Amino acid sequence: MTPHTPDGVADLDRAVRVAARTLARAGLAHAYGHCSARLDADSFVVCAARPMGLIGVGEAGTVVPVDGPLPEGVLGEVRLHQQIYRTRPDIGAVARTMPPRTMSLSTLRRTPRALHGPGTYFAPGVPLWDDPQLIRTDAQAEAVIAAMGGNAAVVMRGNGAVVAADTLEAMVALTWYLEDAARVDLEVLALEAAQPASFSAAVLDAEACGARATRSGRIIERMWEYLSAGDPEFPPIR
């Protein structure tokens, strides 16, 4: 373990590594991106500061305080994680990723509509942070997460997304859901553009979204198992 990773967090650190590699393997991150999981009320574990898909077996992350400066070597945008953990006690895991279709849609100043099941988990709509600049200050991080509010995600125009959930499993699944919702939306936008003006997609309303955004039937767990299958450190999530 690194000097920043004390004894007693090895299982969580391993789970964060699996989540990091899983996000990369799913095409949701490339050279840039990071993920974390809450350790306790005052700290969280973030993955190593390198491309998530290249994080090796046993390569330790860093314990980061929820309040206070980032430890040496931790990426600057991890302050987004800090702000979420500080303001949302229900959140247990966070990912900052670069999902390509979500990114493309965001350049139109759009975020995915609830057109099919995965999109319903972000009702009443994914907030857009309408600024493509990197988040390098606490003030920027506070503003982005304020825009996110209680949603599971916030999309940053031309700059990827942040997804937060109660567990690592859910965080990974919801990041995939966000990108799949963007995939469907982009395809439907193309269809709408080729049709008469009266033709438009059937967007699910609040009631339909509430009914569809379920976790019963091991929906989250099955997506996690599907995406993380084959990882060399596949662990049970606490």
What do you see in this structure?
With 238 residues, the protein is of the alpha+beta class. The chain has a single domain, classed as L-fuculose-1-phosphate Aldolase (3-Layer(aba) Sandwich). Helix content is 36%, strand content 13%. It has seven helices and seven strands; from the N terminus they run αβββαβαβαββααα. The protein has helices at 10-25, 79-87, 100-106, 138-148, 168-193, 206-212, 219-228; strands at 34-40, 43-46, 62-65, 93-97, 128-129, 153-156, 161-165. A hairpin with a 2-residue loop joins β1 and β2. α2 crosses α4.
Features:
238 residues, alpha+beta, L-fuculose-1-phosphate Aldolase, seven-stranded mixed β-sheet, 7 strands, 36% helix, disordered N terminus, metal ion binding
Gyration radius from CA atoms, angstroms: 17 Å
Dominant shape = globular
What is the number of helical segments per DSSP (H or I, 4+ residues)? 7
Number of separate structural domains: 1
Given as residue ranges, the uncertain stretches (5+ residues, pLDDT < 50) are 1-6
Largest β sheet strand count, sense and barrel closure: 7 strands, mixed
What is the C-level CATH assignment?
Answer: Alpha Beta
Strand percentage lies at 5-15%
**Terminal residue distance:** 20 Å
- What percentage of residues falls in helices of 4 or more residues? 25-40%
Question: Would you tell me the structural class of the helices and strands?
Answer: alpha+beta
Which series of helices and strands comes N to C?
HEEEHEHEHEEHHH
Residue-averaged pLDDT: 94
- At the fourth level of CATH, the homologous superfamily is Class II aldolase/adducin N-terminal domain
Q: Label the CATH architecture.
A: 3-Layer(aba) Sandwich
